[in-house]
Every structure is written in structure tokens, then in C-alpha cells.
Amino acid sequence: MSSEQVIQEIRAFMAARDWDQFHSPENLAKSISIEAAELLECFQWGPDFDADDVRAELADVLTYCALLADKLGLDTDQIVLDKLAVTGQKYPVEQARGTSTKYDRL
Amino acid sequence: MSSEQVIQEIRAFMAARDWDQFHSPENLAKSISIEAAELLECFQWGPDFDADDVRAELADVLTYCALLADKLGLDTDQIVLDKLAVTGQKYPVEQARGTSTKYDRL
Amino acid sequence: MSSEQVIQEIRAFMAARDWDQFHSPENLAKSISIEAAELLECFQWGPDFDADDVRAELADVLTYCALLADKLGLDTDQIVLDKLAVTGQKYPVEQARGTSTKYDRL
Amino acid sequence: MSSEQVIQEIRAFMAARDWDQFHSPENLAKSISIEAAELLECFQWGPDFDADDVRAELADVLTYCALLADKLGLDTDQIVLDKLAVTGQKYPVEQARGTSTKYDRL
User: Fold this and answer.
1) Which of D23, D28, D41 would best serve as a mutation to test chain A binding (most A beta carbons within 10 A)?
2) Please, which of A66, B36, B85, D71 could form a disulfide with A36 given CB 3.0 to 4.6 Å?
3) Residue C97 clears pLDDT 80, i.e. is over it
4) Chain CA centroid to CA B11, Å
5) What CDD domains has UniProt attached to this entry (chains A, B, C, D) (predicted)?
6) Residue A80: left (phi > 0), alpha (psi -120 to 50), or beta?
7) How is chain B split into domains, by residue range?
């Protein structure tokens, strides 16, 4: 299945429930943070996790991300590639290799 | 471009910098929350937002999501579709249409 | 110094800058999440952390919490004590001692 | 009641359940983000909120903040005041009054 078919399924799901009215960009951004924290909760007390819970919560984050991208007319693949290019500039391989140091302290 | 090519670009980017060592599932979950909050910051004081900032931050969230999915051997499209099916059960169209009420209070 | 004096200092700080207009409960809730993620960022790649950074970010979370409590007429000490009583019911010592299991799975 | 008595109540609560073992600074930082998002969820679809829910979730954020401060030997009032002083430098009244613009764009 392609990303285009997935967004069509999501659109159909939301339309059937007349939920688009709640999906302002701001509400979607809040929702992404809310679901991201539910994903984080799978790791609240340590590195071990329930694979089913992580799978479900990651899916929720991705769904709201897809909705926000769609609302703003963005292609999720394209914005990721564009950002990778920018990040590549901030973290040249020679300086960044092997370290997690943030770019402003490289 | 397909999602498969995007994840390959992301893998190559991370491999060139030897960053996979930092990408435990827990660290990726923390990163998703951190980037989700940077996206939320675009809306901190109201509904208006800078489109370029939102685009960049959404891309960061999606990138870490793609990394986590890849680390766990998950297909991002498939887990979204699977979760939609589960959500459809919790929110039947007849009861959920037009309302944002959470399923346990429907 | 008491919590009452701290909230007075915070109120004076915000009044001098005419910032109360931005402090709707919703904006304050968003701000708490945003700052909580900046605190989390101190631990993004592992358990080690810079003490000064953690101190500063924790202070930001607490400041926005104080503002939200003040906006809603809540006493921060009282609501914490009230919630401890509720949590004590959900996690009786006999069942909860020594385990991090969530109450619905105890 | 003073903040010192509240932290003693929290310490006693946690000791009775032998929960200190889970309270690494990193786990507490994750917990603060998780609870902050539950607070944010009260405002997921708009500015209206249930006062009881907000009160309970804000209490959870504050409790984990108190635990983290205690773990690191920090006084919550003092770190807030110290940070206000720093923030005052970044946002002089003359330039910052009446605007929500971030300091790096003032």
C-alpha cells in the first residue's frame, strides 16, 4: 500500500464521522504531542516495552501527523527528505560522526 | 517517492554519521515527544503559525517515527491501517459522528 | 520563601510585561508540555544530564504550572495533597509496594 | 501548609510503596512529560475544559516535579526565582512588553 492510499483511508474514516471540524492545525499539533506522550509512557520506567502497545501508540502519532500534513497540503515523504538535507548541513559527517552532541555545541 | 525509498535515505543518513548507536526504542520515543513539543511550540500562543516552522518540525517528528518503526520492523502504513480498524470499533459511526467525546464517555 | 511570595513575584513579572493576555488556561497547558519536553531533552540520549540545564528547564515547567494554578484559583500544595489521597486509593500499599505496574493491571 | 510539608508527604507516600527505586531523574523527566500531555488532553479539541480533570492532571505534573527537585536537592521556589531573573534579562520590559515574540526574534 502507498502513502496516498493510507491518507485516503484516513480521510474516509474522518469524513464518515464528520470529525474534520475538530482538525484545526493547532488541535492536530496538540494531538500529536498527546499521542507522543502515550508512546513515551510505554517506556516510563525503563527501556523494556510491550511491543503491541508501542505499535498502537506509534500508529496514533503517525495518523495525526498524516492528518496535519494533509490539512496543510504537505507530502510527508517530501518534507522528511527536505529536512534531512537541512539537518545534513547542520551536522556534517566529519564533525558529527559518532557523537550525539547538539549542533550548537559541535 | 515511496516510503521505502525514504527510509533508505534516512538509514543512509544515520549510518554515515554512525548514529544508530543512540537509537534505542526508548531514546526514539523520547525524541518523538521532544520534536512533537517543538511542533506544538509553533502554536504556543494561539492558532496562527509559521508554515515553514510547522513543516520543519512535523518533518522531525515523522523522521523519528520512521526510525522507530524501522528499528522495530514495522511498516508505518500497515500499523496506521490496523489501528484505524481498532479505532473504528471504539467509535462506531452512528454514535461517534459529529462529536469529539472520548469513547469511554460516548 | 513561601509559595505565596513566589506567585506574587511571578505575577509582578508578568504584569510588568503585560503578558497575562497570552495566559489562557489552554496556552498555559501547551506551555507546560513544551517546557516538559525541553526538560526531557536533557535526557534525550541517555540517563546522564547537565545539572544546570535540568535546573533551568524544571524551573520553566514549575513557573507555567504556578501560572495555571493561579489562573484557576488553585493552591498548588492543596491539589497535590488531594491527588495523593486519590492515588493512594488506586495504589493500596499492600498491592502496589515494590512494583511499577499501572493500577488497571495490578 | 508549606512546600516542605508537601514534599514530606510525597516522600512518605513513595517510601510506603517502595517506589523510589523507579525514580531516576530520567524516569521522572519522562513522567513529567507524560503527565503534562494528560493535562494538555483536557484542551485537545478547544479552549473549554473540565475543571476537575485539569486540577487532577496539574497535580500529577506538580508531584513529579516535586519528586525530581527533591531527588536533585533543589528548592522549587528558589529555582523558579533564579530562572525569573534570567528570563528578565532575556526579555527586558521595554522590548518585551505586550508581545509574545520569542527573545531571539525580539
Assistant:
1) D41
2) B36
3) yes
4) 17
5) NTP-PPase_RS21-C6_like
6) alpha
7) 1-74, 75-106
